[in-house]
Amino acid sequence: MAYLIEALLFLLPFAAYGLWRRMNPSAQPSTILLALGAIGVALMLAGAFWYGLSRSMPRGTVYVPAHIEGERVEPGHAEPRR
User: Fold this and answer.
1) What are the DSSP calls for 27-69, one per residue?
2) Residue 33 to residue 20: CA distance in whole angstroms
3) Given this model, what pLDDT does residue 29 score?
4) Considering only 4-8, 19-23, 40-44, 55-59, which range has the smallest mean pLDDT?
5) Does any domain span residue 74?
6) Is the pLDDT at 67 greater than 90, yes or no?
7) Which of 2, 29, 37, 76 could pair with 66 as two cysteines, CB 3.0-4.6 Å apart?
8) Of 51, 38, 19, 60, nearest to 78 (Cα)?
9) Does residue 80 lie within any of the structural domains?
């Protein structure tokens, strides 16, 4: 069920654009709107790239998943490769 909701949320902007085009066939999006959309896409890609670089593990380390030691949960972490 969650996948269906995610798919609908993904398709919602495309459906809204299609509905807008159907209701206003002769209208064109303004240049400012297109420029703002392009800037938004560029910022999203730059943010995703920055986040990926800032959260990556250093070379020569391996991820150790969370596990239970005794009665407490040890969070996941990176350790040097053995």
Assistant:
1) ----HHHHHHHHHHHHHHHHHHHHHHHHTPPPTTEEEE--EEE
2) 14
3) 82
4) 55-59
5) no
6) yes
7) 76
8) 60
9) no
| Domain of 47, in residue numbers | 2-69
Residues with Cβ within 8 Å of 18's Cβ and at least 6 positions away in sequence, in order, are none
Amino acid at 34: L
Tokens 């040890």 identify what position?
74
Tokens of 26: 């002769």
- Residues 23-54: tens digit of each pLDDT: 998 888 889 989 999 999 999 999 999 999 88
Please indicate, yes or no, if residue 24 is contained in any of the structural domains: yes
Q: How many domains does the chain have?
A: 1
16 located within any domain: yes
Residues 80, 61 contacting (CB under 8 angstroms): yes
* Residue 62: both structure tokens together: 């391996």
Return d(Cα 31, Cα 24) in angstroms, integer: 17
